[in-house]
Amino acid sequence: MTNLNTVVTWVDARDGLPRSGTPVAAAITGRYPADSVTESDAALGEEFWLLRPMYFTTRHWSEDGAEHRDCFVDSDGIVRLPYGLTSAETVTHWAELPTLPGGMTHVVLGKDVQTALQDMWGPSSH
């Protein structure tokens, strides 16, 4: 059986950012709901710190046409900036995602998927 353990190295987003296009695990902090501020500017809601898969890019355009630089983007197209920059939710730390089990890549597409799975599971797969 292939060893499926991996080591994660967290990087403080204030100290450095990944290469553009890199898939990452991103630790995000903010407040839920994000728009819960009273007229006296006292924040309501609950603070959170959670983990999301995202990718980092040096340049991204949102659906509304806004341009973002040096940002993290999730699968829903939500943009989050590195900690310390103006954003309702920011990325405090990031780590490169591990490679797929038994491989050296982060993605396999099309006809190569079944071959990669068979190579990983072997002939007696479930």
Q: Gyration radius, to the nearest Å?
A: 18 Å
Principal-axis shape equals elongated
Please give the order of strands in the largest beta sheet.
2-3-4-5-6
In the predicted model, the low-confidence regions spanning at least 5 consecutive residues are none
Q: Please state the average pLDDT score.
A: 86
Q: Percent helix among the residues?
A: under 10%
Largest sheet: 5 strands, mixed, barrel
Q: Helical segment tally? A: 1
Provide the structure class.
Answer: mainly beta
N-to-C order of helices and strands: EEEEEEH
Tell me what portion of residues adopts beta-strand conformation: 35-45%
The total beta strand count reads 6
Terminal CA distance reads: 14 Å
Report a brief summary of the structure.
By secondary structure, the protein is mostly beta strands. The chain is 8% helix and 37% strand.
Question: How would you describe this protein?
Answer:
It is built from 1 helix and 6 strands. A hairpin with a 5-residue loop joins strand 4 and strand 5. It has 126 residues and is mainly beta. The chain has a 5-stranded mixed β-barrel with strand order 2-3-4-5-6. 8% of the residues lie in helices and 37% in strands. The chain is elongated.
Task: Looking at this protein, list some descriptive labels.
single chain; 1 helix; mainly beta
List the helices and strands and how they pair.
Blueprint: E1 11-12, E2 23-32, E3 46-61, E4 67-73, E5 79-82, E6 90-96, H1 112-121
Parallel strand pairs: 5-6
Antiparallel strand pairs: 1-6, 2-3, 2-6, 3-4, 4-5
